[in-house]
Amino acid sequence: MQTEKAQGRLAAVLSDAFLILYFLFALFPLVWMVLVSLKSGPELFTTQFVFTPTIDNYIAILFGDARAAAGVVAKQEFPRNFMNSLITSSGAVLISLLVGVPAAYALARYKFRGKEDLAFTFLSFRFAPELVVIIPLSVVYRQLGLYDTHLGIMWVYQLVTLPLLIWVLRSYFEDISPDIEQAAMIDGYSWWHVFFKILMPLVRPGLAAAALLAFIFAWNNFMFPLVLGGSNVQTVTVASLGYISSAQGFFNRMAAASVLATLPQILLALSIQRYLIRGLSFGAVKG
Amino acid sequence: MSKQALRASARPEEMRFPWLVRARPYLILLPALLLLIGILYPFLLGVYYSFTAFNFKVPDSQFNFVGLRNYARMVTDGDFLYSTYITLAYAVVSTAIELGLGLLVAMLLNRESRIAKIFTPLLIFPMIIAPVIGTLVWKMMMQPSVGILNPILNRVGLPSLEWAAVPETALFSVALVDIWMFTPFAALMILAGLRSFPNAPFEAARVDGASFWFTFRNLTLPMLTPFILIIVVFRFMDSLKMFDIIFAMTEGGPGNTLMTYQLTAYRTSIQFQRLAGGLPYAILLYIMIYLVSMYLIKAWGRAQRRAAGY
Questions:
Q1: Which of A37, A112, A210, B32 has the fewest CB atoms within 10 Å, i.e. is most exposed?
Q2: Is the ipTM of this complex over 0.95?
Q3: B302 contacts chain A (CB < 8 A)
Q4: Domains of chain B as residue ranges with CATH
């Protein structure tokens, strides 16, 4: 009995020790990113954990660099990149909501021919290698004048945001009993009324969470704006490569830009934590 | 909704136009169907282009039909087998480790422990950061002059590494970033699975004096199968087509060390402007992913029905 208890305690201590090790691995890069973003140029090379913190990098990122204005170093346009990410990602989510909410409802409620095939075609956007679509799109976009435009990027982001919204929302609609709708319709309410006044309030938390998650995924996308955009729509993800490849090696600037580009994401993700598992698994795991 | 239910709920004007009732799902889906065309059209165009000599530098070359020449070139390319190997190696290694580590972390987090309680909400951080940015942070940590990983290795008595700069450790370096980024995804899914389990069978096993391993092998693992398959679907498909991490770390280098199908397709079609030349790699990858995902999704459906007790 005594040894069993001791064994149990040993197992608990070892388990906690392993968790601490794992979370050191998981969180250290983020801590390091914040630390580097607070270092001055020389301290970048001479210090590790102990240094005099400065917010110069953030000021330079947000309001411009005196040396950049003088043409000594390459100009970084973080605020513009940030706006581009914001516009393209929120535009993409809006389009997906307009198109995806009714689609999710139809796929959840009605039986019709080709239903599952259609649902899986939307899902396949998420799993197909993007280049199959965006290599030919780079030709089509140049013909249509959509190359390097916000609308063009929003359109192609549908590959990321639409399957997520359709599948997650479909699972939320399926959770609602059709009896509720039927009861309301028998009471004489129109289909529109039932949909907007009864169904939408029921799925709203899930809908908001799915939309925010879709926003995060669009924001994180790199390949679409890299291939289909130029300087006009350059997002933070594409711009972040420039800091490290420029000859000066602005690691501290890059770190500051990374912190600013990641902070909104982390806040959004924390706010939808309860719904995250269903969102990340496209409705497959109810969490 | 059943037919009777639809009829019962149909309003007068709909009774006069029964086709409206039957067409309603399609009408509701119309915007999505239009969008679908906008995505499927370039896809089919891409398949067509892969049979032409389309080149950005040569105008009108998209009409030069060359049959299977681009595919033949891909298969006979000296780097093709290596490219296949590295595509699969990256996907298998990172998915397997993410699954194993995620399972372990989830089991450890699913205990009565203060540390587990504090850590669980922090799990999402690595996977919420943009993959490119996360990779650049790792690249900075691996960097010889400002990096921190080598000083840490030296501190614990290990020699410095050259990380992604040399072929020997390049795959390890990018897989490490993938594992860092997506193990939390695996852990979260498993954790959701563990928390959804009914208590009774585990209680019964405990009363009968079953060992930890016996319970794990005969209860926990079979019940986790649908969750494990979800992780494999997402992670294996995504790592087969991984672009961001490899591109941000080395752009496929050093040499051709990390030139997966995706990287080869990008380099040929976009960087070298030989648009048609890269498409066969992307299409081959598409077929691979399609076949594997169909198999995995079917297996998931079966596992879920079995877990539900049918």
A1: A112
A2: no
A3: no
A4: 3-49 (no CATH), 69-307 (1.10.3720.10)
Nearest-CA distance from B29 to chain A in Å? 5
* Residue position matching structure tokens 């309410």: A189
pTM metric for this prediction: 0.90
Mean pLDDT of all residues in B110-127? 90
Q: Does B291 touch chain A (CB under 8 A)?
A: no
Q: Which residue has the tokens 């965006």?
A: A134
Across A269-287, b (16+ Cβ under 10 Å) vs e yields beebeebbbbbbbbbbbeb
Q: Is the pLDDT of residue B5 over 60?
A: no
- Which residue among A19, A33, A115 places its CB closest to the CB of B119? A19
pLDDT of amino acid A189: 84
Sign of torsion, CA A193 A197 A199 A204?
Answer: positive
CB contact under 8 A, A27 and B125: yes
CB contact under 8 A, A19 and B46: no
| pLDDT at residue A276, as a whole number | 87
Q: Which amino acid is at B257?
A: T
Q: What confidence tens digit (pLDDT) does each residue in A257-286 have? A: 899 999 988 999 988 888 888 888 888 888
Match 């581009």 to its residue by tokens. A84
For the stretch B42-53, pLDDT in tens is 999 999 999 998
Pick among 1.10.10.10, 3.40.50.300, 1.10.3720.10, 3.30.70.260: CATH of A78-280 = 1.10.3720.10
The CA–CA distances, whole Å, from A1 to A28, B5, B307 equal 40, 63, 36
